[in-house]
């Protein structure tokens, strides 16, 4: 975590692209910690929140690099509450707005797909399925809010809403292609 803090404490130029040594450190961390327990995941979450609050919230030009780090660390961020925190704090503001660069949007999309898509054979407790369904609902809510059908000739869909709806739809389509049965069941609810 020290290397992450050091990287984000520097200027934003040093984060684009993310330094190879930082990526390697994150990969090594994930390899060493394939089965994080809840307390380790909480500690990671708190460390990431600290980095975000200290360096990213005050310097929006570091957001892209931070979303990339979140995407890389997503397998180690466990628990609905922790993931919901990142959804509210970082991911939804990226996927439900315009003005972010393509790489940042793609990283946020991949973060979400990492939650939505799971291996049913490895989900003995059903926790991954439940989490996927909850986040699918959140993405659907955001999509529905942006894809309103005009009710009169005077009412128009803004270009911003149309663009964001298409971006959210691409996430839903990617999910639907990988989990068609779950998608059908969700729609039938």
> Helix count?
9
Estimate percent helicity: 55-70%
Q: Which runs of at least 5 residues are low in confidence (pLDDT < 50)?
A: none
Query: From the helix content, strand content and strand pairing, which structural class follows?
Result: mainly alpha
Distance between the termini: 42 Å
> What percentage of amino acids are in beta strands?
under 5%
* Global mean pLDDT: 89
N-to-C series of helices and strands? HHHHHHHHH
**Number of distinct beta strands:** 0
Radius of gyration: 18 Å
Silhouette: globular
Biggest sheet: strands, sense, closure? none
Layout of SSEs?
Blueprint: H1 2-9, H2 20-32, H3 38-56, H4 63-73, H5 80-95, H6 102-116, H7 127-146, H8 159-178, H9 180-188
Quick overview:
The protein has 189 residues and is mainly alpha-helical.
What this model shows, in words?
With 189 residues, the protein is mainly alpha-helical. The protein has helices at 2-9, 20-32, 38-56, 63-73, 80-95, 102-116, 127-146, 159-178, 180-188. The model has no long low-confidence stretch (mean pLDDT 89).
Question: Which key terms come to mind for this protein?
Answer:
9 helices; single chain; mainly alpha; 189 residues
């Amino acid at each position: 975590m020290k290397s992450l803090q050091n990287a984000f404490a520097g200027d934003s130029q040093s984060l684009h692209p993310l330094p190879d040594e930082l990526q390697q450190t994150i990969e090594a961390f994930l390899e060493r910690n394939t089965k994080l327990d809840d307390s380790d995941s909480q500690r990671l979450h708190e460390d990431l929140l600290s980095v975000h609050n200290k360096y990213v919230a005050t310097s929006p030009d570091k957001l892209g690099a931070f979303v990339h780090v979140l995407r890389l660390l997503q397998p180690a961020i466990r628990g609905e509450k922790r993931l919901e925190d990142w959804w509210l704090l970082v991911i939804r503001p990226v996927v439900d707005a315009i003005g972010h660069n393509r790489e940042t949007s793609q990283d946020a999309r991949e973060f979400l797909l990492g939650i939505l898509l799971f291996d049913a054979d490895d989900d003995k407790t059903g926790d991954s399925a439940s989490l996927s369904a909850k986040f699918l609902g959140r993405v659907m809510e955001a999509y529905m809010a942006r894809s309103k059908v005009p009710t009169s000739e005077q009412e128009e869909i803004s270009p911003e809403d149309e663009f964001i709806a298409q971006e959210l739809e691409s996430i839903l389509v990617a999910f639907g292609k990988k989990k068609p049965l779950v998608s059908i069941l969700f729609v039938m609810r």
